[in-house]
Every structure is written in C-alpha cells, then in structure tokens.
Amino acid sequence: TYMPQLFLGGTFNLGVLMAWSAINNSLEITTILIYFSSIIWTLNYDTIYAHQDLKDDLIIGIKSSAIKFGDATKKWIGLFIFIQAFITILVGKIADLGALFYLTCFFAFFYIIKITLFLDLN
Question: What is the C-alpha separation between 8 and 38, in angstroms, rounded?
Fold first, then answer.
C-alpha cells in the first residue's frame, strides 16, 4: 500500500479508544472523533518523515504516502490539517468546551500551518 502511514496512525492511536473505554466502560462520539483526528496527525508527521527516505524507498520498492503524494505533499498535508482542525473543533462543540479550548486550537493549528508552509521536503 502507498499509505502505511494511515495504518500506523490507526494502530498507534488505538490507545485513545482503549484508555477511554477502560476508564468509562463505553465509547462516545467525541472519543471516536479524537481517534480519527489523531490518525490524521500521524499521517501528516509520518508523511513528512517518509520524505527523508524517499530516494531509498524508490530504489528498493517500498511504498509510502511521500511517494504517493510526491510534489503535492504540502497540499495533501494542508487538506489533512484542515480536516483535523474541523474534527477537533467539532469535538469542542459537542463536548461544550470553552473559549480557552478554541484559543488553544487556534494557536496550535496556526503553528502547524506555519511550519508546513516553510517545510522543505527535499
């Protein structure tokens, strides 16, 4: 698959679902949304890491999101950041979180967008 980072995210972030259900003996929509948001976060950062091995992966035939996205990687990361921000804000709305939550989200996603814009994938 060209998306091992997606499977990595799904596996790495199972702890979100397991910890919540262990404590609360149930799952809520917000927990599931946080899980999907975490998967997207993993997909983003590991796609960036995959660019470090891009040349070697091409030589030996390993597939990755870096190869799949190629020169459009920053655009894909931008889309994923938007989706992650949307999900995170939706969680805040459903959980009725306050202004501090949204302010923190603003600064966090502003920073993520900023570093993505200046990211040199080569």
Answer: 11
